[in-house]
Amino acid sequence: MRRLLAVISFCAASFAGAASAQSTDFESWLEGFRAEAAAAGISAEVIADAFEGVIINKRVYELNDNQPEFSRRIWDYLDGAVSAQRIDNGRAKMAEHRALLSLIEQAYGVDAEIITAIWGLESSYGAILGNYDAIQALATLAFEGRRTGYGRSQLIGALKIIQNGYALRSQLKGSWAGAMGHTQFIPTTYLTYAVDHDGDGRRDIWTNLGDVFASTANYLSASGYRQNEPWGAEVRLPDGFDYALADSNIHKPLVEWAAGGVKTGTGTSLLGRFDPNMRGRLILPAGATGPAFLTFENFDAILKYNRSTAYALAVSLLSEEAAGRSGAVTALWPRGDRALAFAERKALQQALIDRGYNPGPVDGIIGAGTKRALRAWQRDNGLPADGYPSAAILETLTS
Ligand SMILES: [Ca+2]
Question: DSSP string spanning 292-314?
């Protein structure tokens, strides 16, 4: 016991040493960053005021490594993102703000239910705006870790917001990643796309819903969103379907998908429901054993908001519900599947290399390269080529 205590106190001492070394490093990093900000045209006064008392926030690093829309299984994420509560609130909010949303829908060509769904996902309709000091959060990300480039550019953006008088230093509150206001704009998105809907001279994404909705619609419109076009739909695939067609690079007109036997989720013809010339790509978020979706250009516009398929699907399904339609997914998710741990994802990549396939670097990130290599191996071995890294596939690959 005494020995254990000694070990603990030794660790505590070295921790304290590491922490003070880190704060010294942060101070010297900040010196360099001040020069960078000055070169970007930020005044000495704004810089001095912005960084007064700012220290790094370790919690930001923890959250950066554990983003739920990337780290959770998609069905668990969707259970929370498209919960009965969020659906009910979405319908109520659509009704409450119908007049304002209609005006913005007409002005920007973005459907009210998509604006509402993004609002619901980003801040639970304004209930959770985030209490992190954006300057501190972004300085923390800029200082070290895997998002230093993002942190630096957003930090400069945040300083420009203050310098241009769009918001006060004290108003820059938001998420741990520096996303702010009702629909969580990061500073550079704010600078480029936020708009002053009510004409009071401020682009107030923190307290003015007209500015919030218009800014969100403006950003989606610039990302390619088109009014009255669907995001996509759940689909049903025929027996013997070539799952390799579920590839983010394969966009085909609906008429071709229909010719290949793809039907709506209820088994009817796609052509009866959608414009046959609309182009879509097929996604299988949980592999061949889970639900399938055809997604159109509006889905890709939502992905520009947050580059996570789980997020874009949640927004899409919630938007159906907010509009009073059903956003329920009819096929079952493979809820018994577990997510592969980091070491297992690396083992899967290594196994593909050992078998003569090229997944790219062994980094534990299942990206397009890994999926393509996995598909090739599946195809060569007579398995459904869905490129989905399940525990069962890892077992087969490594046995
Ligand atoms: Ca305004």
Answer: EEEE-HHHHHHHHHS--HHHHHH
